[in-house]
Amino acid sequence: MSKGRVEKTQSNEQNEPVKSKQRTLFGFFSKIPTPKKESPSSSIPLQKSSASPTAGGTGDAKRIPLQSQENELPIRVPDESSQNTFSPRPYSDPFSSPLSSNIPRSSPKRPLDSYDEGDTPKNVTGKLPRISDHMDNAVHSSPHDNDSDVSLDSPTKNKSQNFELDSSLQSDPQFLPSNKFALSSSTTHEDPEKKPNLQSGGRRAKKPVSYQESDEEDLEDVKGSRSNRRKKVVLDDDDFDEYVEPERENSPSDDESIPAKEEVPEDDLMDEENEDMDADDSNSPLAAPKPVNRSKSSKSMYESYRLGSNLASADLPSPRSASPSKTTASGIINREEKRRLRMEAFKKDNSDRYEWLLDVRDADKNRPGDPNYDPRTLYIPPSAWSSFKPFEKQFWEIKKNLMDTVVFFQKGKFYELYENDAAIGHQIFSLKLTDRVNMKMVGIPEASFDYWASQFVAKGFRIARVDQLETALGKEMKDRQRTQKEEKVVQRGLTQVLTSGTLVDEAMLTSDLSTYCMAIKENIRFDSDEPSFGICFIDTSTGGFQLCEFTDDIHRTKLDTLLTQTRPRELILEKSEVSQKSMKVIKYCVSSAAIWNFIKPSTEFWDKERVIREIISANYFEHGLEGTPKVLSRVLETKELASSAFGALVWYLRQLKMDKDMCSMGNFMEYDTSQHSTSLLMNGQTLKNLEIFSNSFDGGDKGTLFSLLCRCVTPFGKRLFHTWLCHPLRSPVAINARLDVIELIADNPSIRDTIWGFMHKLPDLERLISRVHAGRSKPSDFVRVLEGFQKISLAFQQLQSEFQDIAKGTLLSELIQNAPDMQAELQSWTRAFNWRKASEEGVFVPEPGFEAEYDQSQAYQTELKSELNELLEQYKKQLHCSSLNFKHVGKEVYQVEVPSDVKVPVNWCKMSGTKKANRYYNDDLRKKIRKLLEAEELHLSIMSRMQDKFYARFDGNYEKWLALIKCTASIDCFFSLSQAAAALGEPYCRPEIIDGDKGELIFEELRHPCINATAAATFVPNDVSLGGKTANMVVLTGPNMAGKSTLLRQVCVAVIMAQLGCWVPAKFARLTPMDSIHTRLGANDDIMSARSTFMVELSETKKIIEETGPKSLVILDELGRGTSTHDGHAIAYAVLHHLVSNLGCLGFFSTHYQSLCIDFIKYKQIRLMQMAAAVDEERRRVTFLYKLEDGICPKSYGMNVANMAGLPESVIDAAERKSEEMEATTKSFHKATDDIALVSDFFQLMRINEGKEPSSMANLPLMLDCIAGGN
Fold this sequence. Notes:
MutS, DNA mismatch repair protein, Chain A, domain 3; Nucleotidyltransferase, domain 5; 6-stranded mixed sheet; 39 helices; 12% strand; DNA-binding; single chain; alpha/beta; disordered C terminus; MutS, DNA mismatch repair protein, domain I; 7-stranded mixed sheet; disordered N terminus
């Protein structure tokens, strides 16, 4: 809020009358008459709310605090003699910020409902019920049910004062829904008979509050409307008065997501955070511990006390009678006066926007727009640091280096976002904004962090998590041993940074497939040169690094292929060092949602020498550089660019606090985009054209070959299958070995059932063991890991014992025999700790005798609890009351509950109570409870060390666990291929894989496997034969929409399936494994690269010509259609001739140039074929038969297609006449020409053999064949 706006608000408060619609306690609205203006001496000093009617208020309403007072008027108004005036905190309008001025205003959210002691909500799923669900809860109760004195409920951090009304108001006619009421500024305090009218500032979302819990007996004592009265607990803790849900059975665990519409509390004023947050409160006899992350704490019965209360001295929380002081004669609490003064000081100190936020600069003082501007950092002048309060200083020390990141800052049981981050949360996710000049804020509950973090990440934001690193009790215990001055604020630190490309939490990962973060290093002198690339990428969910280095062509074909295969979600590039051509290829290949990071050369994008120094200094591997994994060591020695890319990736992971965890796994592999010697090569263009991983419709996987074939049961099996499909096999021996396993599984249902039985419930072990390595696994997940490996070990034993004979000599038997035997190791874990408690309660409880330190700590706690029970027995005798017992009320545990009619010693302090019983503390009891809580705090640290010990022991066998996972993943892939084969439908067969120097393909009744079930029933199969005794190349003609492109694709897909080791959708299949598949399909321009459709065609054709060999399969669809007819025909002719005469590859060449077929009609290595169609010339109708047959299609039947499209008859007639004229001209031209294709071949052979003796002319038979006319 600007200074001018503040002044205007103050002016309005003094001069403008109150005009607003007002809502009664039950949610009805009524108009309020304009009050008469009175002198200041007779009016209640109020501060006008700045709430907008659409932002949660109903106008410029004035608010006063109310208290309940038994048997008296429920509203206490200060008398005229009061010298202390009370000015409620103004209601900040979240829409008054310039950042939110353009946001559509929505209806105000209703405040959260609440419950009395012990009143446990029944239908709670992560948030409290709305008031609309419990209208009888609309009236608040006093925080002191059993006190006759009236005192204001004044939580230190509540932005607006709540009405606190006695239950008698529910029966008072003045407060019935039909009554109109308002509080006029002329109301005086002298007339007790005159009931003041109330004026509410309108309905607005309130802080969720922390309510004390009680037992069911309390509910029996509370009758009528009082059963639903609310009780608010004021906690004077280190950060702010926390408002949290009570501990209850149905409350969600820390790991559960909270619905998106959950209400969150408003923040407190910054002066209170800084002045006395994290410090002992002078009004409380007990300093309080700071809240910590629940997920890292044990689930004992004292958890809520330890984690949320403010316990820091030797006493327990003060009794109710001691907390806030009673009202003065003026009706104002002393503490409220202190609060008012603080608020005024805060306004004075924060009336202007920080200058360094108005004139933004980076750490080097560069402004936005400067070429060297770094948006990640912020310059804060030294003078500003001296003016910061402790909390602000702590916040900006972290935030100044994370300006491009949304920072979630933990404060108690909430995570809060400030400044620009708050604006993002408010504008995009409609989180409630606390608007002020500096430090605007939105907040979310601690338990909902995972939900909201995933929402921000899904929108492309980078998320930083700043956690409290100590409990208040632990801090106080540690401070007692310190000699230096203790800090005022709780220690916090950056613990995690989340991005879409580096997620590791299983709950946030949306896909079982790998998600990659990739660093790319390019080396090129001029843009026209062939570039070299070093690339390193990682799947952080598994910790697997992959590195490669290669020299590419000027079209970046290999880079295109790599990006298409991996589809990285996040990129790390060297700033100003990537060429324009490479940038265009990267933008074309990666998703629009990918995150781009441009980092500085040398200082951040390390060179090889810097990488080696960092590996040594960071101690990523045992024994330093000598312990470096072999793959990485080889890369560092021989590949400078790949080493630099690895350095950039490590630097980036260090910013995310992940470098140590990822590198220390030692999971490094070299990645080959082509793997020429072992696999079928498919470049990026082929993967796109054949729709292997993504379809051409919406980029999803529906209808792709991957979705058809991948029927893996386990997530890690799916990731391995993706790799298999990127690199189908090339060796006949390896292909047949896979086919043998598929046939074995298909012929033996018992094997199939055994494999499915142990795999279908396995968790993602590959990702989970990486979490164990990082020490971030939950105990319940660790149990899932152990149970998963137990299933695998038992299944492998069963497969080996029951199917050893029939599986002998197969890959399946080899995998099982080579898998590490971990049964003994797993058996030892069953004796280490209680698996059931770890799984259900989320804590490690070691078996007796396994951890001596844990046993001693547990015994000490048991002893302290026994002492408490002995003390209770002593009190029973002392008070002559056998019904005494302990009650845990919220965080105030072990209160002695005494019947109301029993008198207690005067030194006992009442803490809480009901009509039937009161609860007390005394000094002896407090001391013993203190000992117990400190013992529990020490026990937590023991459990943390024990957990680390468990994970370290498990991680010692990381390589064996990973090997066992890979064996299981391979079996899962075999299972997937067998299932996919069975789903192909009849006919399907095992392909016959033969070896040979020349390529050969034979398919009988071949179908496209990706056709859906409905279309498959009417799909027309075709016989295909290439190479061997038939021609290598088929020139294919046919009408538009006759199925030419589908036929071309299905041949390529069948080859891929066969070389993958899968059965194919054909009656018979025989082939020699292909070295590569090249495709050029469709017609698209490339606007980003300023290339026309024809230029794109020729560029792709050039790549095919350069990479094609005798055992390549080439598919060219309608080459030459992007230019004129004559030029297109000429280029198509030249390319076809070169493929057949010089390269000798197999393939299909589809065209609409009938004259091209005539040019090669006598050519022996070309077979002319067409897609059959039945034509009705009179009615201009074409019936597509989708059958492949020999011959040349005489026409493309464009006129028939035009008629089907609905073109005017006159236009079609004119086009038909012109077509006949052009056909006649073309036929006469061909009659006058020779067989130029054969003549060209003859002279080409003559040039090759020029200067050689006739006896050495190896091409003489071909020359004679040309002379003979190809017959």
